[in-house]
Amino acid sequence: MQMIQQNLAYILGGTLLFLVCSSKNILIYNEELLIALSFLAFIATSAHTMGDAIAETFQTRADQIQTELQAFFVAKETLYHEVKHQIQMQQTLAQSMTALGTLVQHQLQDLHTQRAKALQNSVQTRTVTQLQHMVSQQNAVHAHLHNVTSQTYTHVMLEAIQLQKQHMQKLCMENALQLLGTMKRKNVTQKQIDTKKVESTQNTVKKTGNKTKKK
């Protein structure tokens, strides 16, 4: 009843329009028009008798749809927050991995530097040890060569001295022999001279004695 009162103006206007159209023969009462009028009457009757039930049904359906949409939006929002949380966790994990990679890289660089320094120190130590060993060997070789050279030089000098002694002895013997020969020759010559002197003296004496006898 309330609906009729609310739509009274529309109902009166429609009735007047229907009467005017009927009086002017604008509306022709055939099957199509009767079916349309019956449909309109059915709609009006249904709206009048079952309007509340239909409205309640539509309202219930609307509430269900709204509830479903709200649940869908809540699920979507929850999923969005979960996805956002997952993305944040992935970003945090990526940042952590980046920081870890940087830390590992620094650690590897430090380890590489330490290994390089340790290897350099080891190489230097080995090199110094080898050089010291080589120097000691060289010193030992020099000492051995010096000893061998000294012994060889001493042996050569001793042999030279012995040879020189032998040569000097030979020269001394030759000089002594020459001196003896010279002295012998001088003695022989002196004896010959003395002999000649004695002979000449004797001859002189003889001649003197002869002269004296002749006188």
TrEMBL record:
Pfam families: Mt_ATP-synt_B (PF05405). InterPro entries: ATP_synth_Bsub_B/MI25 (IPR008688), MI25_plants (IPR044988). It comes from the Eukaryota. GO terms for molecular function: proton transmembrane transporter activity. The chain crosses the membrane at residues 33-51. GO terms for cellular component: mitochondrial membrane; proton-transporting ATP synthase complex. The keyword Ion transport applies. Keywords: ATP synthesis, CF(0), Hydrogen ion transport, Ion transport, Membrane, Mitochondrion, Transmembrane, Transmembrane helix, Transport. It is a single-pass membrane protein. Its main location: mitochondrion. GO terms for biological process: proton motive force-driven ATP synthesis. Residues 191-215 are annotated as: Disordered. It is found in: Mitochondrion membrane. F-type ATPases have 2 components, CF(1) - the catalytic core - and CF(0) - the membrane proton channel. CF(1) has five subunits: alpha(3), beta(3), gamma(1), delta(1), epsilon(1). CF(0) has three main subunits: a, b and c. PANTHER family: ATP SYNTHASE PROTEIN MI25, ATP SYNTHASE PROTEIN MI25-RELATED. Belongs to the ATPase protein MI25 family. This is one of the chains of the nonenzymatic component (CF(0) subunit) of the mitochondrial ATPase complex. This is ATP synthase protein MI25. It comes from Micromonas commoda (strain RCC299 / NOUM17 / CCMP2709). The lineage of its organism: Eukaryota, Viridiplantae, Chlorophyta, Mamiellophyceae, Mamiellales.
